[in-house]
Amino acid sequence: MNSLFALIIGVLVGTGVFLLLSRSIVRVVIGLAFIAYGINLTILTVAGLSQASPPLLTLPGPYVDPLPQALILTAIVIGFATTALLLTVALRAYQVAGHDDVEAFGDNLARTVESDLERADPEHQSPDVPDWEDDTIAGGRTL
């Protein structure tokens, strides 16, 4: 049973590293998720796979240690939040650059001293900045 888990862990981590080394942002995010799944399975395997009772006082012992299960549950929640954040960043990078190739991004999105001195054209604002007429808010108040 432990050799089966070791094989599954190796496949998950190996697939995750392979996807992490690709040039697409979405593959990088999926690779990080696979590595997280492999680490969760590693924690479960290292804790021991036993047929003992759950840690309830009404059942006779010996009991299973609940700490690895709590660590894995916490890691699942953190991994889900991290994956959602990375997918949001990947979507925004795709919207800005028009492609999801990591190598093609280069340094053209980085700020330099010369780019801080340049002023944006007021006619073509960023999609993040709302384009209000006469500085009014939807409720009719002025800024």
Overall average residue pLDDT: 79
SS field, number of helical segments: 5
Biggest sheet character: none
Helix content: 55-70%
Q: Please provide the count of β strands.
A: 0
Q: What is the beta-strand fraction?
A: under 5%
Termini gap: 67 Å
Question: Runs with pLDDT <50, length 5+?
Answer: none
* Cα shape: elongated
Structural class, by secondary structure, is mainly alpha
Radius of gyration: 24 Å
**Secondary-structure element sequence?**
HHHHH
Structure description:
It is a multi-pass membrane protein. Residues 117-143 are annotated as: Disordered. The protein has 143 residues and is an all-alpha fold. It is 57% helix and 0% strand. The chain contains five helices and no strands. The protein has helices spanning 2-20, 25-47, 67-97, 102-105, 113-117. Helix 1 (2-20) runs antiparallel to helix 2 and helix 2 (25-47) runs antiparallel to helix 3 (67-97). The termini are far apart. The mean pLDDT is 79.
